[in-house]
């Protein structure tokens, strides 16, 4: 266990945590505003990756892939919320079953359209370089992921904390009925947050496609991670999603490196423990 | 009304027992599968339908028991009683431990924590390769012998074996939910605060319901390992837990016979649809959405209320 080992693993954990933040911040916001347990959130990640892949094939442009993935999946999210989930507000079991139904359908549609082979999204040349410092190697693409997560996190925080729209969202998180009572259109806020959450997950999917690849099954593979982040951080809390993503990214990387046989256990067991001690998560409120 | 439902369930079981010898191999296999999965669905119904606790990790107890049987039967050549005891006890112990963590939470938080605990078990099944063989699963699990002239390795005797097990589980759970304890569970489902005010130990009732539910899920898991001869992480994954929820929701939570019929419907649907089309995931997904949109109280509930 040299210093290089710790630095490299910490860096990998950090960049994976950054990717998880893109995925989980949206899930957390959606939960905060609508109390919806969305098991189709991993599907947004996977579908975003596939849409990004097709865009790169057509246009050759990575930024276009990011945009196309985010917009397309935001529309999918809007359709799901507006047509199906809205009528189930307050019915937890119904929401779980319905979002699983959608996840299964998305899985099959992806298989139908893109087939069963794994693909990797080609990333622009400047991001393919590897920075070295002595024996340490830092791929530029992982630094790019961290930068995107920091920027997205900063924008989300500014919007939520400093703008009128953000105040409306926070009001809807704290007390939906009261917010409606003072004239906030909670339906529109919900729809907007759902679209944003889906778009962020899709963004994560396109970016993740550059180093994890795009493949069938990615949806249910990332879903538990997103849930762990949200559970650990506290439902509906942006700082919680940040801390949770970092924690999960690091735990996952060190767990896989140090105890390969127990790696999922080292991830889920601390979470179960946190929940047992503080059922609302680190930053959550009841 | 309750008696009519019991009569309908008993008639369905009797019919299954009567037609089984005449069935070709594949439908008989599915029928056996349906009876075992019915136990799993009924065990979840105790928690979801009678206590009002939606668990998203129910496959964990099922899977723990199935893995216990898989490992003991292949590596230690343990027989019927040993496997049954080990599987059920391990599942019960897992539920007893998880219950301590989960019962404190309510509503969506309960859902989340059971999901997380279920993932702990899945993670172990998937990664603890030296114990569970990881993604490959444990293969060629032998069926036990009863010491009777009919070998359980043959499909028909095993079907009757599973059928008897299902009847026993149904009867035990039926007695449980009609007992004063079961009625208290219903009371907690309707109003936790009122039951607390009446002096009931709500935590203990919920905890016992959780553990009993895990015990019967474990019983189903033991039978599953023998039936399938194969255990893999698929048996403990999230989708399996959700599918069990669907079965209970389809049959109408709070009706044991309904859950069993819901289980049978999903087993037959899944397998028949996958014979005719590759797009069975699409159809299964549509079933999930359709059930919630058109029969939110379950198919039996929809008929019962004339809607």
Written description of the protein model:
The complex is a heterodimer of chains A (286) and B (307). Chain A has helices at residues 3-34, 41-59, 62-85, 92-114, 140-162, 164-174, 176-181, 186-209, 218-233, 238-258, 263-277, and strands at residues 130-133, 136-139. Chain A is mainly α and 286 residues long. Chain A has one domain (3-217). In chain A, strands 1-2 form a two-stranded antiparallel sheet. In chain A, helix 1 packs across helix 6 and helix 2 crosses helix 9 (218-233). The radius of gyration of chain A is 19 Å and the shape is globular. The mean pLDDT of chain A is 87. Chain B is an all-alpha fold and 307 residues long. Chain B has one domain (2-237). In chain B, helix 2 runs antiparallel to helix 10, helix 2 crosses helix 11 and helix 4 (80-102) runs antiparallel to helix 10 (202-228). Chain B starts with a helix and ends with a helix. The model of chain B is unreliable at 302-307 (pLDDT under 50).
Structural classification of chain B: mainly alpha
Q: What proportion of the residues of chain B form beta strands (DSSP E)?
A: under 5%
Number of strands of chain A: 2
* Structural Rg of chain B: 19 Å
The ordered string of helix (H) and strand (E) elements of chain B is HHHHHHHHHHHHHH
Tell me the strand order in the biggest sheet of chain A.
1-2
Q: How many structurally independent domains of chain B? A: 1
Uncertain residue ranges of chain A: none
Q: Roughly how much helix do the residues of chain B carry, as a percent range?
A: over 70%
- Report the principal-axis shape of chain B: globular
């Amino acid at each position: 266990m040299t210093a290089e080992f710790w630095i490299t693993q910490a860096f990998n954990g950090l960049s994976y945590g950054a990717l998880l933040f893109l995925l989980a911040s949206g899930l957390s916001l959606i939960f905060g505003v609508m109390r919806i347990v969305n098991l189709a959130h991993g599907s947004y990640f996977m579908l975003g990756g596939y849409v990004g892949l097709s865009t790169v094939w057509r246009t050759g442009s990575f930024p276009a892939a990011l945009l196309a993935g985010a917009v397309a999946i935001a529309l999918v999210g809007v359709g799901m919320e507006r047509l199906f989930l809205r009528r189930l507000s307050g019915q937890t079991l119904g929401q779980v079953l319905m979002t699983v139904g959608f996840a299964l359908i998305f899985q099959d549609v992806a298989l139908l359209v893109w087939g069963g082979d794994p693909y990797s999204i080609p990333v622009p040349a400047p991001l393919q370089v590897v920075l070295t410092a002595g024996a340490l190697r830092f791929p530029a693409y992982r630094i790019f992921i961290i930068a995107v997560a920091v920027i997205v996190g900063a924008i989300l925080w500014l919007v939520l904390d400093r703008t009128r729209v953000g105040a409306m969202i926070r009001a809807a998180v704290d007390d939906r009925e009261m917010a409606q009572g003072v004239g906030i259109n909670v339906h529109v806020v919900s729809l907007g947050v759902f679209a944003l959450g889906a778009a962020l997950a899709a963004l994560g999917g396109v970016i993740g496609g550059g180093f994890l690849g795009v493949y069938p099954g990615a949806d249910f593979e990332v879903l538990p991670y997103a849930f762990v982040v949200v559970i650990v951080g506290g439902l509906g809390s942006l700082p919680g999603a940040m801390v949770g993503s970092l924690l999960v990214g690091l735990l996952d990387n060190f767990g896989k490196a140090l105890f390969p046989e127990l790696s999922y256990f080292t991830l889920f067991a601390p979470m179960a423990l946190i929940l047992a001690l503080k059922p609302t998560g680190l930053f959550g409120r009841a | 009304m309750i008696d009519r439902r019991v009569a309908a369930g008993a008639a369905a079981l009797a019919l299954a027992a009567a037609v089984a010898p005449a069935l070709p191999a594949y439908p008989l296999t599915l029928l056996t599968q349906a009876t075992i999965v019915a136990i799993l669905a009924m065990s979840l119904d105790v928690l979801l339908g009678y206590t009002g606790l939606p668990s998203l990790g129910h496959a964990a107890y099922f899977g723990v028991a199935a893995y216990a049987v898989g490992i003991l039967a292949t590596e230690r050549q343990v027989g019927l009683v040993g496997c049954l005891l080990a599987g059920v006890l391990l599942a019960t112990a897992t539920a007893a431990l998880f219950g301590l963590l989960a019962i404190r939470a309510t509503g969506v938080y309960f859902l989340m924590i059971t999901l997380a605990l279920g993932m702990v078990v899945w993670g172990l099944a998937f990664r603890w390769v030296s114990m569970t063989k990881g993604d490959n699963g444990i293969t060629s699990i032998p069926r036990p012998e009863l010491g009777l002239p009919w070998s359980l390795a043959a499909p028909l005797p095993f079907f009757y074996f599973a059928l008897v097990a299902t009847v026993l589980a149904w009867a035990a759970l039926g007695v449980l939910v009609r007992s004063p304890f079961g009625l208290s569970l219903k009371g907690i489902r309707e109003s936790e605060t009122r039951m607390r005010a009446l002096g009931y130990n709500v935590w203990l009732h919920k905890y016992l319901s959780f553990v009993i539910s895990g015990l019967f899920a474990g019983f189903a898991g033991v039978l599953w390992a023998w039936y399938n001869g194969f255990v893999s992480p698929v048996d403990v994954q999230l989708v399996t837990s959700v599918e069990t929820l669907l079965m209970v929701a389809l049959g109408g939570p709070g009706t044991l016979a309904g859950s069993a019929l819901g289980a049978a419907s999903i087993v037959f649907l899944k397998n028949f649809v996958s014979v005719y089309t590759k797009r069975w995931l699409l159809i299964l997904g549509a079933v999930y959405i359709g059930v919630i949109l058109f029969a939110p109280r379950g198919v039996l509930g929809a008929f019962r209320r004339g809607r």
